[in-house]
Specification:
The protein is mostly helical. It has 2 domains: 78 residues, no CATH class; 64 residues. It contains 6 helices and no strands. α2 packs antiparallel against α3. The longest helix is centred in the last third of the chain and has 30 residues. It starts with a helix and ends with a helix. Keywords: Membrane, Transmembrane, Transmembrane helix. This is DUF1707 domain-containing protein. It holds the Pfam family DUF1707.
């Protein structure tokens, strides 16, 4: 079968396709596909790190396709059309630190859980030991209750401001 001029042109272009420069979207797509191979167990984390570094430094299509030579599909596909949008970053699967507001609430609950039983026990013991001055214990309970009430009101006001 004879080849036409256009067939020879297409073959030559395919041979040079490995020399075509790539963009950030192509590098990100290659990184995402390498991550899929890690998830499937085809690459170790060390191999992934090495290949992802090479993908990030790749300049031409051939650099990217070489990274997938020993792997089954999926492989990167290059579009000769307009530049592709950069791929969305891979989701961060690392555990997230506790937010400061949540940490403050946890600390507040812990403090309440420790102080409340101590206050009740202390008040009961104080009533038994200080039967001569129960007014002093009542004054202490009044002060603690007032401080607690103020803290609750301040917390509610902050919560309302945060919802606006």
């Amino acid at each position: 079968m004879a080849t036409t001029d256009s067939d020879q042109h297409a073959l030559a272009a395919r041979g040079r396709s490995g020399e075509i420069r790539i963009g950030d979207g192509d590098r990100a797509a290659a990184d995402r596909l390498l991550g899929e191979h890690v998830t499937a167990g085809r690459l170790t984390s060390t191999e992934y790190a090495e290949r992802a570094g090479q993908a990030g430094a790749a300049r031409v299509r051939g650099d990217i396709t070489a990274l997938f030579g020993d792997l089954p599909a999926p492989h990167p596909r290059f579009d000769d059309g307009p530049a592709a949008e950069p791929a969305a970053p891979a989701p961060d699967l690392a555990p997230r630190p506790v937010q400061p507001l949540q940490r403050n609430r946890q600390l507040r609950h812990l403090t309440t859980a420790v102080i409340a039983p101590c206050a009740v026990f202390g008040a009961a013991a104080g009533l038994v030991l200080a039967a001569d001055a129960p007014a002093l214990l009542l004054l202490a309970l009044l002060v603690v209750g007032t401080v607690y009430g103020v803290l609750v009101v301040v917390d509610l006001q902050r919560a309302v401001r945060g919802q606006r």
